[in-house]
Amino acid sequence: MSKQTAAQNAQRGDGGGTALARQDLDEAIKHDYSTTHTGIVPLDRRRPGWHFMGLWTTFVAGFSYMFLGFEIRAGGHSLAATVGITLLGYGLYVCYAMFGAYLGSRTGQTHGLLTRSVFGSAGSVVVSLFVLLAPLGWVAFQANLLVTLWDGFYGWGHIFPLTLAVAGLMIFNNLLGFTGISVFARYLVTPVLIVWVLYLVVKAGAFDGGALGETPPGDGLPLWVAVGAVMGFAMWGNEPDFWRYGKPRFWWPLPTFLFAGVWFTLFTMAGWIMAALAQSNNPAAIFNFTVHYSLFGAFWLAWLIATISQVAINDGNYYESINAGQNLLGGWRRWRRPYTVLLVAIGGVGAADLVNFHFLNGWFKVATFLAISVPSATVIMAVDHFALPRLLGISRPLTQVPTWREAGLCNWPAVVSLLAAVCFGVTGSGSWPNGWINATPSNHWGPVPLASWLIAGGLYLALVALAKLFLPVRSTLGIAKIIPDSTLRSSAVVDLATVAEET
Q: Are 451 and 497 in contact (CB under 8 A)?
């Protein structure tokens, strides 16, 4: 897409709401703006703020976030401490997410397509594999949690085969792309979730408040480990994938993040409260107690809420992996998006086996790795796009998605910075297999995800400054062939939004 085409798309209108909705759905099924030639969401396809509030509330509310409350309580934290940990972890996440959302809304591109421009072709493969594989761990965890809920409700058993089956089937809404996952969440999940959690917390406070002041025994989840777990549960990493459908203004997503943060905190609190009242650390037993306590023993309703909410959450996990797969495979002439959906579904089934039945504390490793790896890549791209032009006079326009042949080979400072940040994060969180390189307790490393992001962005800026002094900038930074030298040496930030402003 050239600058002229981008500007035309930014100004283009539509003849009516029904026709626009039909066209949105058709585009979502065919490509969802995730391939080389259809990789930028035009400004006239952006969605309103209330649309994102419904979607994001679904992404941060549900039984899985109650599980987070179970684990924090089991780690020896009081309810007040749990609220503080949740607010701190979520607040740190929002600081990152604002820049990730802004990058996506300004460029209109998925995380995967952005890596092709910023990291170069080789670097894009590395990052896209991170983005493709890491969310499948969450798919696995959420699928197993749903089956555990079913077992707690009805004693169904068959945990292993049901987990594998559910993990694969949960991808269905992604056949309709962003339109499918957002409509499902907004109309079928969010209203019921909000009413239920409010009732649960208010009832506990009114009738069982005396039982909520305890500090439970246990020290299995130190403070910074707990904060990192909260960041991992809140984190998507591929915020550009969702927010490329938003308005290209920095503060525009903040009301949505704050609104969703209320429900994130309440559901974590609800989990702590239910674990305290049930006097158990067994998730199935706690969920069974929760149904009797807050849903009047209506297990059919609990089954419906749990199933719909877990599917909606996994919509987002699968969406992340699919867009990364589309970056890698979507450019093939005969390739179609449903093929990527099928391959990722198979990967989800495999992850369901590994994470739940072979990895010790798999949920924690998944949470921390996702909070470290993909966000570090996003920070590097935000620094490249917004900071390099202003600080070093190096501008990489993002108005067009380069083909694999047009992309540069590799942005070496970006790849080195990313790998250094991930290495620090995995070591600091104690997530190496079999405890490898875990020389000190992970709690001694502080807020590991935040430190990883700062390492990624700061190291990248320093390495680019050195490259500008001593190395050829174009080849070292993996600049795409479609960007002329005259444009490269500039202090201007150039993307879809700036082109629209100029015209």
A: no
Where do we find the tokens 């099928």? 342
CA 96 from chain centre, in angstroms, equals 11
Q: What is the pLDDT of residues 162-184, one digit of tens each?
A: 888 878 777 766 666 555 544 55
Q: Is residue 474 included in any domain, yes or no?
A: yes
The C-alpha angle 100, 370, 232, rounded to 5 degrees, equals 85
Q: Which long-range contacts (CB under 8 A, 24 or more apart) does 47-50 make?
A: 47/182, 47/245, 47/246, 49/246, 49/247, 49/252, 49/255, 49/256
CATH number at residue 166: 1.10.4160.10
Domain count, the chain: 1
Total-model pTM:
0.83
Kindly compute the dihedral angle of the four CA atoms of residues 98, 99, 105, 108, in this order, to the nearest 10 degrees.
Answer: -140
Is 230 within a domain?
A: yes
Give domain status of residue 20, yes or no: no
CA separation for the pair 313, 21 (Å, rounded): 23
Which tens digits make up the pLDDT trace of 78-129? 999 999 999 999 999 999 999 999 999 999 998 888 999 999 999 999 888 8
Which residue range is the domain that position 97 belongs to?
A: 3-11+28-502
Rounded to whole angstroms, how far apart are CA atoms 275 and 286? 6
Please provide the distance, in angstroms rounded to a whole number, between the alpha carbons at the two ends of the chain: 16
In a domain, 305, yes or no: yes
80, 59 Cβ separation under 8 angstroms: no
> How much is the CA Rg of the chain, to the nearest whole Å?
22
